Amino acid sequence: MEWERFVLGPLETNGYCFINEDRCLFIDPGNEAERIIEFIKKRQLKLEAILLTHAHFDHIGAADDIRMEYGAPLYVHEKEMDWLDQPMLNGSGLFFPNNPIRINGADESIRTEGRLEVAGFSFQVFETPGHSPGSVSFYFKEENLIVCGDTLFAEGIGRTDLPGGDFKQLMTSIQQKLLTLPDQTVVLPGHGPITNIGKEKKMNPFIS
Known about the structure:
- This is MBL fold metallo-hydrolase.
- It contains seven helices and 14 strands.
- It is an alpha/beta fold.
- It has a single domain, classed as 4-Layer Sandwich (Metallo-beta-lactamase, Chain A), CATH 3.60.15.10.
């Protein structure tokens, strides 16, 4: 399996395309749907699913356009199913009140932790709330990497001052779900550079 990072939109949200032969998953299509579709077409891939680490506007903005293009199901945690078309919950109503983001409801809800298998892709879902109530992380053990949305950044952590944010809960998620992974685990965050668990244990001021 291989993966590609896309830095998308005005908030430079990281989206990730995971590729297994001629099939792919896309995690957090925050913006620039045309660019994502062009990449998938150029590589002659079949998009099997769209996954969201959470439902903030900068992580969901291109989901409908990609879903219409490929008919791929959209997955989000059940606690944020109703955020997709509610700008005050997904944050676009707070930051861009004149241009709110609303997308159609998800096709599949993530209800619990555990292994999720989608069209030949297999990975673990970790519930990592704190940045938002339904934040999740996707752990690809065999590839030694985790996609953690806005939970953990390189030398930083996700903000907790948006609706449903909880600093104590965020730190518990980081300590109990992420920092228990092997130090060499690659961390693919929702914004900023790629890092790893060992580096964050040493360098992250919120942790070390």
